Please model this.
Amino acid sequence: MKILIIGSGGREHAICWKIASEVSSATFYALPGNGGIGEIANIVDIPLDDLQGILSFAKQEKIDFTIVGPEAPLAGGIVDMFNKKKLRIFGPEQKGAILEYSKVWAKEFMMENSIPTGSFSVADNFEHAKRIIEKTSFPAVIKFDGLAAGKGVVIASDMAQALRFLEDVFEKNIFSSADKKVVIEEFLEGNELSYLIITDGESYVPLAPAKDYKKIYDGDKGPNTGGMGSYSPVSMCTHELEKIIEKKIVNPTIKGLQRRNIDYRGVLYFGLMITQQGPKVLEYNVRFGDPETQVILPRMTSGLLEILQAAVEGKLKNNMVRWKDDAAVDVVIASSGYPGKYETGMPITGIEKAFGDVLIFHAGTKKKNDTFLTAGGRVLNVVGIGKDISQARMKAYEKIEKIYFKGMHFRKDIALLV
Model:
């Protein structure tokens, strides 16, 4: 069996690692991949935005099953392209991917289907947005409408910070988009939770809940990133809370997609805020979370490939997923300067010394002459596994001390106050 993984991050390394542990006879390909994935899969040098090139490769190599990691190819319609050629691929078609690539569409969809979320307004130019902000209480959440690799959101503490972000969007065009819109929404207080499901459009299986850390610095300070760490399980996500999430959020979302004639087959990620009034949706993602995947998959005892194939074929069953009691804590090691400008090409040492009680999933790395080099903002995920969060956390941080590259940065408080 030939399996293609699309993507280059820690999420894709974790997916590849999990399936490789299940299917010994498979041949793996990854594009564009990274240094760590290259230890499992054949690296294919095709950029993520070359959708036609990816399709041609899959046809030429007779790929049996493709898994899409990041959101951009999904938003670009890669699943539609594969489906037209009758190539099996896991992920939603472009019509479903709009849940992530348009924040405006997603918020309006939530309101239409009575899915609990914060109140909001939409603006498509600087002056309109400024007028809304002038009537808004702070802190306020401002989101760029399109894809922004986890960096298109600001929680503005005052007018000055809000206006700076609006200038970045509308005047400096930092997201390089012709269709510029922002959602200005109510700031919700509570505890964040990442809740993921795999669905075939009718049935779904929930994945183990996780919590991630989006800010670059300890104490949730600094700008947003793609994610600086995560852990699972999450003690606040009780069986009772899960039932509420399924009743008020998951089921209405599935039914709302059906009413729109969207045949959604893939992962649905619910970024939630657990408020005093109950869970509310902050955002949808249409793919596995990163870094949540890195702590969810090591806890899964059932076969991931079997579940993904069942979702594509419309044969998903509620009892297909099983979990171990162990906890997992992921600490992301990033390049200095991330999420802003950063240098690459730094030699990484100590990875081999860190193996043992932890898993190491590569993100921004490449391998040259048997040496791993930094090649991105988020470089490595060090995942500790233990009987509880405290033990898993201890293992992760102990192994991080053995790893070094110039300018490496990581948060010291991942899963600390759990």
Observations:
- The two ends are 42 Å apart (CA to CA).
- The chain has 13 helices and 22 strands.
